[in-house]
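Final report, results section. Input specification for complex C-07:
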Amino acid sequence: MSAQPRTARGTRTRARLLAAAEDVFASAGYHDASIVRITEQAGIGLGTFYLYFGGKQEIFDEVVDDLNARVRHAMTEAARAAEDRFDAEREGFRAFFRFTAQHPALYRIIRQAEFVSPGAQRRHYERIVRSYAHGLAAAQDAGEVRPLDPEIAAWALMGMGELIGMRYILWEAGGDGGTGGAPRDIPDHVLDELMALIQRGLAPDAPPSAATSREDVRHD
Amino acid sequence: MSAQPRTARGTRTRARLLAAAEDVFASAGYHDASIVRITEQAGIGLGTFYLYFGGKQEIFDEVVDDLNARVRHAMTEAARAAEDRFDAEREGFRAFFRFTAQHPALYRIIRQAEFVSPGAQRRHYERIVRSYAHGLAAAQDAGEVRPLDPEIAAWALMGMGELIGMRYILWEAGGDGGTGGAPRDIPDHVLDELMALIQRGLAPDAPPSAATSREDVRHD
Amino acid sequence: MSAQPRTARGTRTRARLLAAAEDVFASAGYHDASIVRITEQAGIGLGTFYLYFGGKQEIFDEVVDDLNARVRHAMTEAARAAEDRFDAEREGFRAFFRFTAQHPALYRIIRQAEFVSPGAQRRHYERIVRSYAHGLAAAQDAGEVRPLDPEIAAWALMGMGELIGMRYILWEAGGDGGTGGAPRDIPDHVLDELMALIQRGLAPDAPPSAATSREDVRHD
Amino acid sequence: MSAQPRTARGTRTRARLLAAAEDVFASAGYHDASIVRITEQAGIGLGTFYLYFGGKQEIFDEVVDDLNARVRHAMTEAARAAEDRFDAEREGFRAFFRFTAQHPALYRIIRQAEFVSPGAQRRHYERIVRSYAHGLAAAQDAGEVRPLDPEIAAWALMGMGELIGMRYILWEAGGDGGTGGAPRDIPDHVLDELMALIQRGLAPDAPPSAATSREDVRHD
DNA sequence: AATGAATGAGAGTTCATTCAT
DNA sequence: GATGAATGAACTCTCATTCAT
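Structure output:
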């Protein structure tokens, strides 16, 4: 069972373990991330680990929750500075991609959680969706978003972000899966395309003329 | 090193191993999927495994490629029967969700590939994106889709499908992460919402006349 | 249980197995010499092996006995051509070294026999010693060799040959233990020194003057 | 990778492993000497082994080096107490045989090293030869040994010791290859014969009369 | 608070041997 | 006579976890 540190020194030790664990989980994967490796990276003794965490799975969960809180914080902060809803959405995505670039651990860890800790994984996604759906609902009330089920939309949007981030941030970074190279921002044109898709979908613009419908287009 | 069987009996054995591996990888995860478990499930001797596969990772890769081929086949088949592009897209997604419901292995296995076999994972996503982007490009030429970068859009669409599938197929199924329960189709309203999003995005409909806005709709 | 072949084809198969086994045992060592490898090298099917040999150990023993017969044959032949006993001994050694150069398998296999088949090892050494001791005894009777225990001397001589061969034939060949390089004869000066040692031992030549003997030295 | 123990307890554990390994390698042979057996004999847990040794081969090498150091120490100590060179040689051999009797591991292990660790084997022989050759060279300078190549002679002498030891110590002991029975000293008459051979070789004593030589004998 | 020696279940893998074809 | 698919015991090695110091 984990224990909260009682001294300042203990607090530092615990924090170092958490940071080391994020690193090691991200670079080696849950199963190849041995406790020895984590403690070595943290620069503390092996046995000390069990003073602060109940086991491997427990520290994993905590790392997931920590990353989740941080990415949501980054997104909210970015969105708050925005002027309108569309801008907010754009900045939220940008913040998400930036966080991904700076903390590839996020992806790599979340995906592993599938088996390691399904609960933690679910928590992660649901928390993001919740705030997303909340924003959408508000926007709907404000007439900025058309009538739709905010939760379904939120899951879809998150999915877009997830795979676009994987492809254009993680894979670009290392060229081989993201294990090397410097983090980079999302290219502008990718973000532009993504936002356009989110706003308008795939459908061609309605022609200026009155009664446009898909049937008409087809005759063309 | 894997070897191709030289007899009919060998071919059967190899196939049984692959099927068992898909099962075990999906239910237990790569790391807890021991060779013993796979061979037991396949009903063959432990040593026999190494007659056909070089090791765990090798059979994993083959399972991934196999699932990938099958899901793409299912999607293409479904889309081919469609009458127009919109319908094709809808049926493609439906097929994908149905496949997900019937083979939860797909998700569970792909996500693990992150560390187990990054190459296989990448191959999987890229293959799907390729045919997706191809379809979008063709639709663009036909004027059915507005001008956009087909690859970026393909990644985004795939992401939507991925998370919607996770949430409304996998999680619903078992209620706890997908380890039990009967597979079910995607609920109609979810698919409807998704398709609407893909077609039109979030933006409110452009008012036909001057002052139309959501406020009007609401009074209804 | 091994079986003698009943057909000409069978005889050839058996011989090929034996030859392959000698090769593989010599290059890989008993334990890393798998039956598969032996049969592959022999170009026959795995199961066929058990038609001719009862098992790994059985073919090993046969290889040892075969090598033993051949090295003894080579030595006897060489000695027979010699003119006197000293010459015979020299030529016997030379033949032994030449055989060693051409069949490093001899050493490598005999030494492994220590555990694999102590009986075969013992047989090998004893057979060589027997003929050696026999020759020494005869030479003694002829007054060409001073009175001594022929068996003890035979073991000692064989030991000299063994380590000289190891050092100046096997190790020279590959430079690293004998796994490569072309076989070479024993250098003349090495053989000369060895023969001198066998004939005269280490002691300095008795001084030409009359009564010198080791007794004198001792008084000192 | 092996590691040096950091505590007194660790040092004791490591030593116990080394001793057990010597035992097991000697009685079972390298390949049948499983780590389990070694740790069981040492009375420690299996995993503990890997705290101190990188693997089987690594502990094997260390056992070889250890035995080598000990046998050379025994020989040098014995020789040091001797009064003259001849005596020194005799006592050196006797010490070697005694060590052999007390540590049959020496032979059994060295011979296996042929494949298991050629480097260790070579090191073993070369170290012994080096000190041997050194002693011979010194004796030569003192006029106690006739002119000869000390290295070649050293290899030959070592070979004598090796096979005499095998035959009259190891094989006598158990009667069946040395796996049982009490260790015993080399019988005096064997040592006497050996020393005589080393001193004087095989040649008959020069007859007291003047011009005797082998040429004369031949005419006979 | 901190340490690292010790543990053993369990993993992947090899291979001598059997036997149906 | 010849084959190779099948087997499972046995091996080496890893690592989360415990505990005496």
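Residues 57-200 of chain D form a domain with the Tetracycline Repressor; domain 2 fold (CATH 1.10.357.10). Residues 5-7, 9-10, 13, 44-48, 51 of chain D lie near DNA strand E (CB under 10 Å from a C1'). This concludes the modelling results for the funded period.
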